[in-house]
Amino acid sequence: KADKLVAAWNGGSLDVLDLLFDPGFVRTVNQSPDANGVEGFKKAITDFRTAYPDLKLTIHNEVYGENAMAVRWVLTGTNTGPGDMPATGKSINIWGESIIHIANGKITKEIVSYDEKSFFEQLGFTITPPSEEMN
């Protein structure tokens, strides 16, 4: 299943996801809801591939259990396309981990964790502490 997920991210081959995912699939990223259902996940991939047209996902470690798998991945790409924010033209190289739950042969849930601070810093964003007036 991991290789088919990588193919969807890297090549935009989204039709295979209908075969892999449970209709009730839920994805959370850093504790925030990200996608509900297969169509929501397809949209998330399409949106990210639009913002990062040269996106490349690489799996570095895979661990399988009876009804789950965990993967450590690296995502690279250049932010040249439109997205939630204006394109920065900067490249990213981030790593993260996904825990994927499986029931009846279908993926039901993905819990994603990655370093958002590093991601935004690579895009050129900075964190500004609150001013004294805000305290």
Description:
- With 135 residues, the protein is α+β, with helices and mostly antiparallel strands.
- The protein is built from four helices and six strands, in the order ααββαββββα.
- The longest helix is centred in the first third of the chain and has 15 residues.
- The N and C termini lie far apart (49 Å).
- The model has no long low-confidence stretch (mean pLDDT 92).
Keywords:
135 residues; alpha+beta; six-stranded mixed sheet; 4 helices; 6 strands; globular
Span of the ends, CA to CA: 49 Å
Q: What is the helical fraction, as a range of percent?
A: 25-40%
Principal-axis shape: globular
* Strand line-up of the largest beta sheet: 2-1-6-5-4-3
Summing up helix and strand content along with how strands pair, one would put the structural category as alpha+beta
